[in-house]
Amino acid sequence: MSKQVVVQKAQEVEEIRKLVQAHTALGIANLQKVRAAQLQELKKKLKDVAQIQVIKNTLMKRALTELKDKPNMEKLEGFLSGSNIFLFTDLNPFKLALLLEKGRVKTTAKAGDIAAIDVIVPAGNTGLPPGPIISQLGSVGLPTRIEAGSVWVNRDTLVAKRGDLIDARLAGVLSKLGIKPVEVGLILKAIYENGLVFTEDQLHLDIDDFKRNIMEAQLNALNLSINIAYPLSENISLLVQTAHRKALNLALNASIPTSETIGHLLRKAHLEGLGLSAKLPKVEEKGQPTQPSQASGESSPVQKG
């Protein structure tokens, strides 16, 4: 190796080292399947939040060994294989992962690609004229018919599940039908930040599930604070309402007259009075002595003196 090449590589390593030192995070993404035009578009989108560069793995490895002041930087060496692209950023690793995920686009499949979704060919007119296409569609399990000079698919048909490998035959059919089952974009393999290395699995966030968990935790915390009467800005109105309701019930049960209870107490007394008066005639009837019946025609016995 010539001295000029050695000097050039040393300069490149120094530039990489400076880039790492100038940012809080370093991401490694898989460059495989990413088209050049798509990479340029991604660089434009992320220019304000990340600097993206294609660097040889050997040069990056040399730079990592020289970054002695960055703890655990050597853990990134396990991800330095295959075609990689490196992202230098001050952005939160999880936010960067979300940005890259949103930046993915669907594209036509090639042999060996992995289906990003369940691939369903919808029923309807393919717009293709009869011919060899009929056997091609049939070879991937699509039921067809000819109608009005076009080939129609009889029913919605699942031809590949998410994660399935797409072979050349299926890729050709999907391309002719205009179906794009593959997502292309940068997929983060790992991100280093402040001594921590986050892997692809750790960076994947289910935002909807996360929101549900936060809402459930908030509701549980609110219920707990109400049950133990712990005053907070979020529950104070509920606590006051609960205390007021309990105080009102206590005053009513104890017949304590207040401006709020007096109406209830008077109505209660009135109802009790009506109930009592309804029982009074029956009580009087039970206590009244029985009179002899005049209609019977019987006379009282004559007492002799």
Task: Write a brief caption for the model.
With 305 residues, the chain is of the alpha+beta class. Helices cover 45% and strands 16% of the residues.
Describe the structure.
The chain has about 300 residues and is α+β, with helices and mostly antiparallel strands. Helices cover about 45% and strands about 15% of the residues. It is built from ten helices and twelve strands. Helix 1 (about 5-20) crosses helix 3. It is flat and about 120 Å long.
SSE topology:
Layout: H1 3-22, E1 25-30, H2 36-45, E2 50-53, H3 57-66, E3 84-89, H4 93-102, E4 105-107, E5 119-121, E6 124-125, H5 132-139, E7 144-147, E8 150-153, E9 157-160, H6 168-177, E10 182-184, E11 187-193, E12 196-199, H7 200-203, H8 207-227, H9 236-253, H10 262-287
Antiparallel strand pairs: 1-3, 1-11, 2-3, 4-10, 5-9, 6-8, 7-8, 11-12
Give the tally of β-strands.
Answer: 12
Order of helices and strands: HEHEHEHEEEHEEEHEEEHHHH
- What number is the mean pLDDT? 86
Distance between the termini: 163 Å
Low-confidence stretches: 293-305
Our count of helices gives 10
Strand order of the largest sheet: 2-3-1-11-12
For the report, how would you describe the main beta sheet? 5 strands, antiparallel
The CATH superfamily name of the largest domain is: Ribosomal protein L10, N-terminal RNA-binding domain
**Quaternary status:** single chain
What is the global morphology? flat
